Amino acid sequence: MVHAVVAARQSNQLPELVPRFCLTVSNLNRALYFVCDMLLWVRSVGLLPNINKKKWRKRATKCYYYSLVMNLAEDLYELCRCMEQTARTEKDQEDLPPCGQRLRSFLSHLTGGLQPFLFLLCLTLRKHPPLLLDTLKNLCDLSSPLDRLGIYKTNQGVIGLCGIISSLVGILTIASPSLRLKH
Q1: What is the pTM of this model?
Q2: Most distant CA atoms of the chain, gap in Å
Q3: What tens digit of pLDDT does each residue of 167-176 get?
Q4: Of 64, 86, 139, 182, which has the maximum CB count within 10 A?
């Protein structure tokens, strides 16, 4: 909880408005999640048995959900910035590495205006692995609160698989700090 409050304080110092807002709100919601979780723990050990477990679990889940949504909003903002940067630097197909040419060839089979967007998205995520990993982790983490809050019901297998993927990405970013998204 203390770490979340300190992180909120630090993120409030970021120079750009969108990351500052998203990360500060995310960290404050994470701190509130820990408060709710602590109350649930206090109830489970019998110190305050009158605490409504169902109500506080739902509050904790909502705080966690809001934290993830704000993290994803910040990821989307970063993705848009990176896509703009990539679009400026990639002028034509000759400038692309061979894997980029293969990707463009694959996407050329798609129809409509989605093709250039998908190409730019894939190229951007390939150039920014920390952003890809952070977005993937946040999307995977979202499955559990979506299910618990009844927003999008899924089965426990999907939630478990998402949890495994999220954990593996988390371990990878700890083992290799260069893969951690910097703010």
Answers
A1: 0.85
A2: 68
A3: 999 999 999 9
A4: 64
